[in-house]
Amino acid sequence: MLAVKQRFSNDENLLDHVEEFVGQRLRKEGLSDANAINSTNLVCSISKLMAAKNTTFLGVAVQKTSNQVVVRIVSDGEAYNPLDDLDIRSLIDTDPPVPDQDFDAPQTGEQLLKALRNNLSYYHRGTHNEVEFVAHKSRPQTLKVISIAFVAAIVVGLLLRFYGGTGLNDAVSTYVLTPLRTMFLNALKMLVVPVVFFAISSSVAGVSDIREYGRIGMKVFTFYTFTSFVAILVGYIVYQILQPGANVQLDMSAYTYSADSSTGISLLDSIVNIVPTSFVGAFTGTEMLQIIFLAILAGAAATMLDNGDDRQKVTEFLGLCNRFFLKVASIVMKTIPLATFCAMTLLVLTIDTSMVVALLKLVLGMFLGGVGMFLVYALLFVVFVRKNPLNFFKKCLPNFLLFITFCSTSAVMPQTLDTCTKRLGISPKISSFSMPLGSTINMDGACVYLTLSTLFLAAVYHVPVSVDMLLKLAVTIVILSMGAPPIAGAGFICLSILVLQIGVPIEGLGVLMGIDQIMSMLRTLINGTGDFVGTASVASTEKLIDYDILDAK
Asked: In this predicted structure, what is the pLDDT of residue 259?
């Protein structure tokens, strides 16, 4: 949709004109009154700063795209970034608050700061300064579209299998389905290294020392790290019980992998190989621990630069590269419904009974892994909070349904924060830090999923997994879960890293595409539950939880 633009002279009526124009346009684009007021106030604050720099005019444009509403503010003059002088703290105290992913819900200070960082951008083009503000983002329809693609693939696959004939089926598979699926998997493989490197390096550079969060931060981080390793153990135990990848009959003639290629590497060799012989060469290999090592090293080095300007430039550069590759990855991930359709149709055309049973076992394994983690969470809750965990889970039930629906803990952050305060009695001092941090680094569900799926594919492709390799995978899974990119399909990106690391052909991911949406729901449910329990546990140790509210029925 074309942008609606308006140019204003820099006079005493400037802010009144901007306020009237932006407010009307945002309401016309469907924003609620609360969101329109928030966004208009923010635009006026930025406009005031830009107008104070002797600019002759101010241009404002409001544009609605397929999934968001964007406001752009343009002025002439020398380079000036008004975001440097924007009083964010004063905006936090506004009522209603500055918008975030759920723009009409109450937000805490930390969430507002994160919202502003994500929704505001500055550019200097020629003689013009430009600020871009994302005022509204629509809810993603990924779940609905993938579900339709999943059902359609089963229907088309069954029709081809029983009525298509060998000639038609071979042609459709060879010239349509397989090429499209392969292109998606190649794109995924292409993005793995840059996405992981810049996601981790920019995170390390942006938070140079977790001690800046104090004692509470260390407790939260330790809790989340501990449960991540427990989740890997749970996933491993469940896999050993069910053995979902055993006895699968798979045609290996199309693959060049040799099981001997991954043998003979000890734990000591793996530790030594973490440090690459070439910085650039590491990016062309499949040793992802080397990429993670370099990312942590680069991020730490950025924080240690003596010159403050250089430190800021490097940090901004890493953040810019991170945003750029996440955008590229988001574009690729928009094709997930098509890739799911192709992969699932191929699966229906070629699948045998052993693979059907194996996939059902894998889904069951993920469910049992979730049950196991709920038992772990219940035990931790009893140890730290010393209350009935069933009542706690009952109070979190509405949020559990949201986790399953949206397959994202970040997308429903306002609701989870509201639950923490009003239903669980947790102080905002804890929840406003622990819950957002948990949505970023606490991926217990992903740890269970990655462990099960990696071992499943290793068994399907007859790749031996030694004890040394298991330890190496455990460390990689925890680090990847903490640095997972916050985009749809992030679990698939992380899984592609792991399968390449153990020598499984990336084509193996196509086997799992059809069930990934179910796995994503379970992953998110486990992730969100871990966030709640971790937040409540830390709050209890800090005596920042109201037990009267927690015990209330």
From this structure: 39
Task: Give the integer Cα–Cα distance in Å for 553 and 392.
Answer: 10
Answer yes or no: is pLDDT of 87 > 70: no
Nearest Cα to Cα of residue 359 among 258, 510, 233: 510
Helix (H, G, I), strand (E, B) or coil at 324: helix
> How many C-beta atoms surround the C-beta of residue 404 within 10 A?
15
What is the C-alpha to C-alpha distance for residues 13 and 21, in angstroms, rounded to an integer?
12
Instruction: Give me the mean pLDDT over the 159-166 stretch.
Output: 86
Residue type, 280: V
Q: How many degrees, rounded to 5, is the angle at CA 523 between CA 518 and CA 527?
A: 155
DSSP letter for 163, please: I
Q: Are strands 4-9 and 57-64 parallel, antiparallel or unpaired?
A: antiparallel
Query: Phi and psi of 122, rounded to 5°?
Result: -120, 140
Q: Are 399 and 416 in contact (CB under 8 A)?
A: yes
CA distances from 411 to 73, 159, 433, 505, 545 (A): 27, 38, 16, 33, 25
The most confident of 33-37, 130-134, 330-334, by mean pLDDT? 130-134
pLDDT band at 393 (very low <50, low <70, confident <90, very high): very high
Structure-block tokens of residue 331: 């574009």
The H-or-E segment that residue 361 falls in is: helix 353-384
Q: Region of 42 please: left (phi>0), alpha (psi -120 to 50) or beta.
A: alpha
Give how far Cα 329 sits from Cα of 120, 410, 493, Å: 21, 18, 9
Separation CA 409–CA 520 (nearest Å): 11
What pLDDT, on the 0 to 100 scale, is given for residue 440?
67
Residue 54's pLDDT is 72
Measured distance CA(539)–CA(25) in Å, rounded: 43
pLDDT for residue 2: 54
pTM over 0.90: no
pLDDT of residue 467: 78
Please tell me which residue, 266 or 283, carries the higher pLDDT value: 283
Given a cut of 60, whether residue 207 has pLDDT beyond it is: no
278-312 b/e with 16+ CB inside 10 Å = b? eeeebeeebbbbbbbbbbbebbeebeeeeeeeebe
Identify which of 465, 361, 357, 446 has the alpha carbon closest to the alpha carbon of residue 407: 446
Cβ–Cβ under 8 Å, residues 538 and 224: no
Distance CA(314)–CA(303), nearest Å, equals 9
Q: Which of 530, 350, 337, 364 is nearest to 456 (CA)?
A: 364
